[in-house]
Write a structure and sequence with these properties.
33% of the residues lie in helices and 18% in strands. By secondary structure, it is an alpha+beta fold. Strands 1, 2, 3, 4 and 5 form a five-stranded mixed sheet that branches. It is globular and about 50 Å long.
Length: 136
């Protein structure tokens, strides 16, 4: 079972090392977001075998996981999540997926996941130029 804990400022370096060049963008990727919202959403992290695993806890256990970030094959990282949820007796819910990660899940585990877009939870990501100029 993964040993999740509430992130501290001491976790910034290793999380930044994994997230800065992971090729993913989104509100939940950065250390700052993870750290700032850690108490509100009971966000916990785990560095297992050089991979960032993140989970959102509730009173009954893990409510959901984030897609893992690391330099391992996606199937290897996802199998760790599947095993963790199974060992905890929790339902495996992977939230805040981008299109690429959703495609990876459906390719690697056909019929295992149901992917449901939630527009109210979507990220709005703008280029620096568009944000500065607000072209419409």
């Amino acid at each position: 079972m993964l040993e999740f804990y509430t992130p501290t400022l001491n976790d910034k370096k290793w999380i930044d090392d994994l997230t800065f060049n992971c090729g993913q963008i989104g509100c939940d990727i950065s250390f700052a977001t993870t750290y700032l919202w850690r108490n509100k959403y009971d966000i916990r992290v785990c560095n297992f075998d050089g991979v960032l695993y993140k989970a959102y806890f509730g009173s009954s256990g893990v409510l959901g996981y984030a897609f893992p970030i690391g330099n391992k094959p996606p199937k290897e990282m996802l199998d760790v999540l599947i095993n963790d949820a199974t060992q905890r007796g929790d339902k495996l819910l992977i939230g805040m997926l981008n299109k690429t990660n959703a495609e990876i899940l459906t390719h690697l585990y056909p019929q295992m996941f149901t992917i449901t877009p939630e527009r109210d939870s979507a990220d709005y990501i703008y280029s620096q130029q568009n944000l500065a100029l607000l072209p419409g």
